[in-house]
Amino acid sequence: MSAAKVDGGGMGWADGRGARSPGRRASAGPLLAGATLFAVLGTGAPPGASQTHTRSDGATRGSPPPAKSIAIYVGRSLTEDGSVLLGGFGHEPSSHWYEITPRRSFPEGVTVEVGITGEARFPGRRFRIPQVRETFRFVSTNYSEFAGFPPPLTNGGLNEHQVAARDVWSPSRRELVEMTPRPQRGLSYSDLSRIAMERATSAREAAEIVGALIDEHGYATYGGNSHLFADTREGWVLLDFAGGQGLWAAERLGPDEVRVSYPGYIGPFPVDFEDAPDFMGSDNLVSFAVEQGWWDPESGEPFDLHRVYGRPFPSAPGQNDPHDLHRYPPRLEEEIAALAPLGVAGMMALVRDPRWSNDGSGYGQVAHLREGVRSDLGVLWMSITGAVASPFVPVRVGARDVPPEYKQHRYMTKDSDRAFLGSDFAPLEGTRSAFRVHKRLLYHTCERPEAFLAPVTADLEAFEASLVAEQPALESRAESLFAAGAADSARALLTGYAAGRLLDALELGEALVRRVEADTRERFGIRLPGAEVPEGASWRPESGEMTLREGRTYHRCWTPGAEGYPRSHGSHASLASGAADAALARPGHGGAPRGDRGPATPLAVGLAVATALGAAGVGWLAGRRSRPR
Questions:
Q1: Of the four listed, 74, 351, 482, 593, which is most buried by Cβ atoms within 10 Å?
Q2: Residue 623: pLDDT band by 50, 70, 90 thresholds?
Q3: How far is 316 from 299, CA to CA, in rounded Å?
């Protein structure tokens, strides 16, 4: 049965995909029938036969994987609507989930635990620091796994003051890494990211807060890190260096700039930065470099932080690692500047770019930072896993919660193999995991990107285009409610809209994965692992260890030599199947079959779900009787 017949409606994937194997469905004798059974159940030979497979791009062979997180900043002079855009993702072998952290108040003298444990690559200690009396509301993606860094972890997000944050790797020079104390003491990257969201009212203040915390308490490194903060007017890049010396530096990004942190970096830096409003840093930033002989003030050379304290870019000119060809920020910045003016959909396409969005991409985020927007209407577009196989959905700071399907589940969650599930989490675990659904879509799509990447992208972006078009009317309705003094109703509207569209995105993901998997089974079969089993072992290779083996790369959709990147959002629109329309027209979520009632109204989802929620709150979303206010 073809993929088009499985779900009652074509995906538009049959054209140009090559002839199917003749006689696939024909009656056959016992031998051919057995071979067909193996093709349906999985590629490969019967037990005992050799099983090998090499992706056409060689992605399962050779070099270490292309790794790490990315952040992309585009200043307001380079965007379609005068907003600031900040996009990117984190890079963690972990489960991921959404959280809307409420504004909280704490009594005087309350402390919060920070730091890392002895299990980290560079062991550390946990300790407590004072908590502020009040923390801000923010939207974020959390995750569970980074050895020695206790969960929940975060790379940032968007807070109620429209301060957005991304956290990105930034390797310090080897001498700094080697001088890191063992154990070390200081706040982790996640501690700093979370506290910036809790306390900052601007990007500049976020940098000041992080710098002050490092000055007072130290920084616990994994080898060097950076943050990229942005608000409606500007951005700030902050580097926190390894070595236990309290070294940090920050640089302002203006309205005419594009910055790609891949990795995070800062170049030439003023020696008298204390008097330069666009720079800040630790007191010893210059003197330590001089003491170590890493920079000579008499040399006439600029005080270049990337050269003095960092490492060469992985794909700097002269290097030849095929997996790092795209990791050269100056070239990427030129690419993105050439796309100006850029819109929020264009930033989604950049975060989705298969040159870096792959199985190592934990999620996707695009912060759309606009002046004159009410705090509750600040919006973070969120993708639950690598955006190459997951749609962006707007979640506003004024929303109260997200559906259970987007909360923590056990798939890929730290310590889930250690003990049974706690009964308090059983109802939550009983729901579908949006993260898992879209991971399945990523695995199938990236197995055969030449067949599936473009049509899957087309459907994801058709869905997103509809959501982008809905936003002005949604915001207008919410603003009217706020202006009328009906704040609870406005927030219920925002909550209902986010919940409805998140669930629509999940339905889209499930429809796509059903179709891609069915088409894969028919055209190629499901490839099974070809790893050799230990000497004397009788089990099949698919019962072996599933973790990534040394020298292999992530499962990814990028094919070396592929052209057309960066590309515009919607560039594959002709391949869209209608799956997005079907997901948006789900009964009970404000939609209807297009042929019955015409296009769904922009506010139908939000209004319908908000009515069901009522003014009392969103208890149905989380299945709890009470929650923080």
A1: 74
A2: very low
A3: 24
